Amino acid sequence: MNGQYATQLLQQFPDVTADRLMDLFGAVWAYFPESMFMVREEVEGEFRVIALNPAQARIFERTVADMKGEWLSNLLPADTYAVIRKHYQQCLAAREPVRYEEQVDYEDAAGERQSGVWSTLLVPLRDQEGRFSILFGISQNITNLYEAQWALERQNQELERRVAARTEELEATNRRLAEAATQDPLTLVYNRRKLNELGQAEFERARRHQTALSVIMLDVDEFKAFNENHGHHFGDQVLVGLIKDLRSVLRKSDILARFGGDEFVALLPHTTETNAYTVAEKMRAAVEQAGQCSISLGLTELRVNDASMAVALERADGALRAAKQQGRNCLLIAT
Ligand SMILES: Nc1nc2c(ncn2[C@@H]2O[C@H](COP(=O)(O)OP(=O)(O)OP(=O)(O)O)[C@@H](O)[C@H]2O)c(=O)[nH]1
């Protein structure tokens, strides 16, 4: 015992004799439920067990007598011993108590490798020669604490994974809902509601920046006959094919929408009537070339006096009707 600690202990218990205190320490040593031990560094870096309490022996499923005097390297697997030894040497070098938590593996009586997490307090003590070579240690098994923490972490990770998956699902649903709210389900072009919204925005942009904006309205010629002669499904496929042909002509920045039935609208930002005419004619020719159906088209450019997009749309619709009257499969510019 280091005199310094004994003096402190006696001061704590002024009415108790040194003898009784030794008794008290003996009782603690024998009954304390956590491991207590003393080891000595006998060869540089090699520690021998010089004392251990019954709680420590129980962990190894051996007796105190059996373990006393044993080299630590014989009690612990090499990798565990390497870690523990480092703490021991650091404590002796520092000459002051240290605490650490470490996963410790050991072999039980049956030679089975066991594992646990231990919180250890080491106190360095001087030997007879006054050299710090002895360590007194108390180790508490905190494996359950760690396992609870690991379980909690695993639970949290699982929870986070589920939340992420659910969020992804919700986002996908939201995307589908947003698309459904703006898209025509058959042709996948914008629906009329979205056309109104985008049309208004383009109208305002064209006004503010005084740029051209053209409107093309088109309708499949005698579409009713497709349904009547080949069925509704065939009619649907004609519309899907038509959109493919129209898209092949339009730019990405152009807006294509279903106005209703077999009637579609293309808004061409930054495009004059003359240029839009070329585009519309290409649309008509592409559809004709595909050979499934033909289309009639009405075209107009946004005018200074147009109070809203609806006015331009109505004018394009008038031109479309006139194109129908002229015999279909043709294109007219609104007057
Ligand atoms: N298959 C199919 N038919 C549709 C759809 N929407 C509207 N129709 C049909 O399209 C036809 C539109 O006919 P109209 O535009 O009035 O006339 P049309 O036969 O095209 O003749 P014109 O326009 O005068 O050349 C109607 O018979 C509608 O029932 C659809 O989504 N799928």
UniProtKB/TrEMBL annotation:
Record's keyword terms, sorted: Coiled coil
Cofactor(s) the record lists: Mg(2+)
Coiled-coil annotated residue ranges, if any: 142-176
Cellular component terms per the entry's GO annotation: plasma membrane
Domain PAC: start-end pairs: 102-154
EC number, as in UniProt: 2.7.7.65
Domain GGDEF: 211-335
Biological process (GO), any one: cell adhesion involved in single-species biofilm formation
Reactions catalysed according to its record: 2 GTP = 3',3'-c-di-GMP + 2 diphosphate
Stored InterPro entries: Diguanylate_Cyclase, GGDEF_dom, Nucleotide_cyclase, PAS, PAS-assoc_C, PAS-like_dom_sf, PAS_4, Rev_trsase/Diguanyl_cyclase
Broad class of enzyme this protein falls into: transferase
Gene3D superfamilies to which the protein is assigned, alphabetical: 3.30.70.270, PAS domain (3.30.450.20)
GO molecular function: diguanylate cyclase activity
Pfam families: GGDEF (PF00990), PAS_4 (PF08448)
NCBIfam families per the UniProt record, alphabetical: GGDEF, sensory_box
Protein name as catalogued: diguanylate cyclase
